[in-house]
């Protein structure tokens, strides 16, 4: 499988409509190059542009869906279109990832479970998802996650228990915690014996410089490819069948001990 991670730069001087058009063109450029294309978290608004979430929120089948479905179909690729600020029919907001098939069909939508901000920002403005999402694509099973989810290993264990072999994470990760980004991506790959494809943003969101450095990690924790800090397309070839080989050669997942009792005091 060949995957292209499009590390979009979010420039506050560029309108959302213009960015959609530009990013759709970048996706179409991957026709014949990649089987799977990934975009970052909240690339339409900027992950830290909290004040724009309500104004820019759209329904699942809104303009980003329409534009990205067409781009996926035109390019003939699986497209993880990053995430959008979704407005539910009841008015609630969610940070929702969209995944399209090569025919442009929406095959999965994932509402981010772990919202960042503690008692402010996304954690206050958006609702929390409650369901894990996996999807069968290109001969493997992919699990979806978003940004802050990366810090919560139990979510990824749940995806692996649901059959995930490739973990797809879109993010808007800040530069000041870039070391954690690389470390955690490798940790999630090693502990779950799975590929991790993590696509972040470049640029500056509401004054917060982004880490960039999108990364692809194999089930042994080896970094297959990593982007720099600026906007770029990171393309890498990998074999999802390696997951089964690694899990057979080093069957650590079989030794998990679940349901341990709490310590006595």
Automatic annotation (TrEMBL):
Keyword tRNA-binding tagged: no
Classification via InterPro entries: C-N_Hydrolase (IPR003010), C-N_Hydrolase_sf (IPR036526), UPF0012_CS (IPR001110)
Family annotation (SUPFAM superfamilies): Carbon-nitrogen hydrolase (SSF56317)
Boundaries of every CN hydrolase domain copy: 1-240
Pfam family, one: CN_hydrolase
Species this chain originates from: Streptomyces adustus
Superkingdom as given in the UniProt entry: Bacteria
Protein family per UniProt: Belongs to the carbon-nitrogen hydrolase superfamily. NIT1/NIT2 family.
Name listed for the protein in its UniProt record: Carbon-nitrogen family hydrolase
PROSITE patterns: CN_HYDROLASE, UPF0012
């Amino acid at each position: 499988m060949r995957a292209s991670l499009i590390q979009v730069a979010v420039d506050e001087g560029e309108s959302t409509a213009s960015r959609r058009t530009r990013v759709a063109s970048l996706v179409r450029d991957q026709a014949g190059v990649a089987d799977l294309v990934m975009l970052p978290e909240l690339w339409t608004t900027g992950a830290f542009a909290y004040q724009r979430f309500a104004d820019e929120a759209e329904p699942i089948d809104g303009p980003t869906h329409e534009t990205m479905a067409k781009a996926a179909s035109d390019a003939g690729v699986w497209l993880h279109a990053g995430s959008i600020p979704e407005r539910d029919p009841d008015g609630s907001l969610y940070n929702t990832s969209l995944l399209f098939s090569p025919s442009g069909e929406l095959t999965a939508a994932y509402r981010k479970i772990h919202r960042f901000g503690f008692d402010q920002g996304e954690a206050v403005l958006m609702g929390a998802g409650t369901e894990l999402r996996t999807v069968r694509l290109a001969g493997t099973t992919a699990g979806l996650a978003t940004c802050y989810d990366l810090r919560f290993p139990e979510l990824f264990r749940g995806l692996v228990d649901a059959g995930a072999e490739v973990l797809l994470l879109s993010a808007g990760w800040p530069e000041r915690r870039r070391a954690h980004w690389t470390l955690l991506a490798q940790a999630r790959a090693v502990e779950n014996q799975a590929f991790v494809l993590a696509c972040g943003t470049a640029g500056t969101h509401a004054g917060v410089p982004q880490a960039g450095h999108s990364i692809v990690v194999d089930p042994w924790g080896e970094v297959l490819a990593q982007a720099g800090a600026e906007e770029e397309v990171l393309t890498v070839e990998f074999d999802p069948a390696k997951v089964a080989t690694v899990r057979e050669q080093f069957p650590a997942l079989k030794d998990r001990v679940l349901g341990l009792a709490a310590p006595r005091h």
